[in-house]
Specification:
alpha/beta, Rossmann fold
Length: 251
Amino acid sequence: MLKIDLRILAVMSSLLAAFLCTGCVFKHSLNYGLIDPEPMIPARISVLPCSVWPKSYLIMGVDNSHSSESLSGFCGVFDSHVVSAFKNQPYMRGFTPRLLSRIHSKNGYQIKALWKTFVKASPKCIGCQDIASFYQESILNNDSWKMALTEFSKRTRLSDAILFPFMVEAKQFEKNTRGIHVTGRSLRVGLLLVSTQTGKIIWFGGKKVFKQNQALSQVSDPKQKQFPPWKLVFKDTLVKELWRDFPGRIH
């Protein structure tokens, strides 16, 4: 009789918790590093050009008010950093964005087909705190996405993994606190290494950097405002730490 009572109590507790948490947002997040419990070292990594994370794919804590154009202007710097990360790394083999363009121009494949499938996913994770958890919750189990990955691999010399570099957030702000005028800039980037065979994330990298300047009074002339240089923000964002635990990487 006691066992039955305990079971009833457990069920009632679960129902009460569900009732009290109606409308709650459950947070989902993943740590940087290896994600797949059985990681592999890909033989052929296709490095895609930097892309801006879709504005419709909301991430908790990310300011989505930026324009895609403002972020895409930073992609050239990010692309250079990603390609340079493969230099002098004998176990990190892949195709650069430029080489991918040549391969696809010969066989008629258009990478737009892959992106169209990526951005068509129905967001299912309102509590996702990073792009990796969003991918797992909303994109990974999409059959069309897995088919698109398979087709990409076939048309890209059987590439077994794709590296997606994303510009997630870039913002500039200013505020006045008790006579102290603060100007700041921040940048958030993300990297997803995805298996073309399973669609699973093999590795996840990313970093956010925030820089600010302070002055005793507000400057009325916009040209005189001293925002931290974007070069400095990039320098502190695109560092070796970004590649921690990347499969096959020798530090």
